[in-house]
Amino acid sequence: MSDLLDIVRSLALNRIDKHGDQFINDAKAVYATAETGFNETRTAKYVADRLSSLGLPVETNLAMTGVKAILKGSKPGPNIAVIAELDGLLVPTHPGVNADTGAVHACGHHAQIGMLLGVATALSDDEVRKHLSGSVTFVLTPAEEFIEIEKRLTLKEAGQIEFLSGKQEMIRLGIFDDVDMAMMTHTTSGNGDSAIAIGGTSNAHVSHQVKYIGKSAHAGGAPDQGINALQAATLATNAINSIRETFRERDVVRVHGMLSRGGTSVNAVPSDVLYEGRVRAKSVEILEDIKERVIRCYRAGAMAMGAKVELIEVAGYHALQQDPGLIDVFVRNARKIVGRSEVTVNKPDQTQGGSTDMGDLSTIMPVIHPYTNAAVGVGHGDDYLVEDYERAVNIPAKIMTATLLELFTNDSLGAKKILKNHTPKYSIDEYVEVQRSRFSSTLYEDE
Amino acid sequence: MTPKSDTKSAFLNNVNERSDELERISQDILSHPESGYKEQRTSELVANWFRTAGFEVQTGIGLTGVAATLDTGKPGPHIAVMGELDSLVVPGHSFADENTGAAHACGHHAQIGSMLGVAAGLSQAQIKAELTGRISFFATPAEEYIELGFRESLRAEGQIEFFGGKQEFIKLGFFNDVDIAMLTHTGGETAGTIGVGGSNNGMIGKTVTYIGRAAHAGGSPHLGINALNAAHLGLAGIHAQRETFRDSDTVRVHPVITKGGDAVNSVPANVQLETYVRASNVPAILNASEKVDRALKAGALATGATVEISTSPGYLPAKYDKQLTEVYRNNAASLIGDDNVIELPHSTGCTDMGDVSQIVATIQPTANATSGTGHGIDYLVENYDLAVIKSAKAMGLTVIDLLSDNALLAKKISGSFKAPMSISEYLSRMRGFRSVTMFSE
Predict the structure, then answer these.
(1) Residues of chain B contacting A304 with CB distance shorter than 8 Å
(2) What angle, 0 to 180 degrees and rounded to 10, lies between the N-to-C axes of helices A109-123 and A41-53?
(3) What is the pTM (predicted TM-score) of this model?
C-alpha cells in the first residue's frame, strides 16, 4: 500500500509544482483586494469561482461570506476539512492597505487561500481522487480576526450573525456537522530558523464593550455639572495596569484594549466613552477568574467618577488544542517535504498569547494549526509581509496534500485511528450553548 | 462720665507701660513651643499671669485651655478676646524644640501677648467704670489640626471630643453667653499693615486604611491584594474629580500616605492615608467629601481590597462680621493710619475661629509682622510692636467702643448678627460629620 501512496503522492505534488505559480498568483490577487471580516465578498467570489473551475460543487454566502466545496473520494470515509481564512486586518499604516476597504493582509490569510487552492487542485485530479476513501471539504471562513466589534454587534442585532467570528458562526450554522477533522496552515514570521512549526496552543479570549455614561456639560463653563466618562475610562485602565502583578506567567494573561470613543467635542465634558477591551488567558476557565477582576476595574472607574458603565460581554475564542495524532501525520509528511531539520514541534502548552477561532473548532473535533515561516515583520504590524511565496503557498499545500493522502490511505486507517483516540471537549450543541452563555449585558450604576 | 477718648488714652498708656513685659512673654513662648493639647508650660504661664493680675482663672479647659474674665459689674454684652496656645511641628525651624520639633511657625506666641495686652490695658477701675458687660480672655489649645493620631487617642480616652481647642471651649459652654469674639493673627502681607475682613475655608479630616492581603511580592503576587495599588488608584480617582470643583468653592484636597507598606518583598497589605477636604462652604465640603469617598472606594473595588474611611469633623468656614470689622478698622487706622489697614482676601487655610464665627459675631484681623512662609521653617515674627502691642491696642480700643455708652455698639452688633447656627445645632452638625465607612466587595 505504501508504494501506492508514494505514487499517488508524487502525482499530487507534481500537480502543485506544475500549477504553483497560479496558486501564488491567487494569493497575490486576494492580497490586493483585502477585506475585513464578514465583508469578504470579492475574496469569496474569487475563491468560489476558482473552486468551481476545478469542478467542485460550491456553496457560498455561508455565515455571510463563507464558502464551502466538497471533494468526494471514490469510497465513503471520513470527511476532513481544509480551511483558509478570508479576512484581512485594519492596519492603516501598512504599505499594502487596500484603498477601497482600508483593509490589509497583515496576518497572511491570503496565503492560506493560495494553499487551499493548491490542495484542491492536487486532489481534484481524477487519478488522485480515486484513491481517496472519504471526502475533503474546503472551507473558506470569514472573520477570523476578532475586530470591528461594534459593527459586528450591529450585524448580530440585525439577525445576520449570532457569533462574531466566521468559524463560530459556521459551527452554529451546522457547516461543520459532517466534518470529522480539520486542518489549515498559517503563515508566520516567528518560527525561528525552521520552515514549518506545529504544536502549541493559543489563548482563549473574551471581548468587552465598556460604555461609560457620564453627564455632558460645558467643559469650561460648568465642569462641576458634568460627569466625566473619559476620566472613568482612564481610571479603569490604570486600575487594570495595577492588577497586572497578580497575573501568573503560566496563565498567559493578556488584557488590552482601545478607546474607540473618547468624547464628542473637546469643549464638552465627555459623557459617552467606549472602551473596547479584550481579556485573554490560556483557558476559558482561567479567563473567568481574570475577567471578573478586570470587570471590577471597569466598575471602579465608573464608581470613582459617579458615572454609569454598561458592559457588553461578547463570547470570544477558545484555546486551541491540536490533536497529537494529527500532528504526527502532518510532521511525518512535512519532514519528507522540507527535511527533518526544517520542522519544529512545539510543546502542547506553548503559546505566544494570541487567539484563533481554530480554538473553537478544536473543542468539537481534531484539528491542527501549523505555521509556515514565510513572512517578515511583526504579525498584525505594518511591516508584516509575506516574502517567500513558495513557502507561504506551495510548500504548505504540498504538506497538507500529503497529510490528507496518508490519512485516507489504507481505507482511511490513519484518519479513523485519530477519530477513535479523540474525545472532543464539547458536542456541537454544547459548544453553541457555551458560546451563547458567554454573551451578557450589564449596567452598573449608583455604585 | 469720662469722655471715651480719655478712656482710650488711659488704656493705651496702660498697654505702653507693660509693652516690654508683653513682648518678653511672647518671646518666651516662642522659645518654648508646645503643639496642640500639649501646651502645659504655655498654659501655666498664661494662668499665672492672670492670677498675678488678680483674675480668677479657670484652667484645664480642653486639657490646656485657660479662661479669665474681667467683669465691669454691670450686666451687658460678653466679649471674648482670644489667643492660641499651640505651636506647629516644624523641625528645622530656628526656634524648634529639639526634642519634639514643635515650633511657632504660625505666630501664635504673639497672639498670647496681644491678648494679655488687652487684659493688662483694660484692668483698671477707671476704665471698667466706663464699660458695660464682661470681657473674657480665652487662651485656646490646639488650633493647628495636626497630630491626628495623638488627638484620636485623646478622643478615645474621653479627654477631648474635638480636635480643635475652640471647639472644646464651645462644647464646654464657654461661648454660651458670648456675643462677640476676636483674635489677632500674625500675617505676612505687606509689612506694617493690619489686614481685616477676609474669610477662611472650612474642612473635614479623613484617615483612610486600605487592607489588602500580604503575600510574597516576588514568589506569589497572585495570592496577594495590593493595598498600596488600591491607595494609588484612590488618589488618582481623587485627582480626577478636581475639574468638578468650582472656583468659588476653593476646594482643597491634599492627601498624604502615612503608611505605604511594611516590607518591600511583601505585597503591601496595610496602607494608610490622611487627607483634609477643604472648601469655602459646608455644602461644597460635603460634596467634595462624597467624591473623595467614592474615589477611595473605587481603589478598593478595583483591587479587591477593603477600605475603611474614618471622617472627623474639622473646622467650619470662617465668615467675619462686617460691622465689627468696621469698628476694628477705625481703631486700627487710628494707630497705624488708614492706608495701612488692608482688606484680606479669602484664605483657603482653615481655623477653628471659623467655628466661633458660625455662632457669634467674630473678627480675626492679621498683624502683618512676619517674614518667611507660614508653617515653614523660616516663619518669624519680625515686628513685635505690631504683632503684640499694636494688636493689643487695636483690639482693646475696639472693646472700649463696643462696651462704652452702656455697650450700645456691642448690643447693636450682637443684635443684628444672624448666627448661621445655634451652639446645639453646631454641636450636632459637628458630631454628624463623624463617620466610619467600611467598603469591600
Answers:
(1) 233, 237, 240-241, 294-295, 298-299
(2) 20
(3) 0.86
